[in-house]
Amino acid sequence: MTKSSQRRAVRDYRERLGGKGLSRFEVLTPEGDKELIRSLAKRLIRNDAEAARIRQEISRSVLGEPASRGGIFAALQRSPMAKGEAELELQRSFDSGRKVDL
After folding, report:
1. Residues 6, 9, 11, 16: what is their CA dihedral angle, to the nearest 10 degrees?
2. pLDDT recorded at residue 66
């Protein structure tokens, strides 16, 4: 059983971390990835431009590409039809249709 002074020290430590916007948690990982995860955590703690880039890359890799708005519209704007490069005849001849006996 831990002594009350030890519990208080742990509580105070966690409060200080929380004040810095950090949290402490345990991660299960294969032995070979331990140093990778530690170095990644150390880089993310810096919270600088490099950390933001790493977060973005990891998010894209793990969570998949985020859905972006306007993707279809952008694709249509890139098409030859929108640029006026397509040589299409868009006029249709009018035909009254065929006679059907009912």
Report:
1. -160
2. 63
Crossing angle between the packed helical segments 34-45 and 49-63, to the nearest 10 degrees: 130
Kindly state the tokens that stand for 30.
């294969």
Mean pLDDT of 89-96: 79
Q: Which pLDDT does position 52 carry in this prediction?
A: 92
Q: Which residue has the tokens 């972006």?
A: 68
DSSP per-residue codes, 10-51: HHHHHHHHHHTT---------GGGHHHHHHHHHHHHT-SHHH
pLDDT digits (tens, 9 = 90+) for 2-22: 689 999 999 999 999 899 888
- Tokens 């708005």 correspond to 69
What are the distances in angstroms from CA 43 to CA 17, 33, 53, 63, 66? 16, 15, 11, 20, 23
- Biggest alpha carbon–alpha carbon distance for the chain: 99
Contact 22, 45 (CB under 8 A): yes
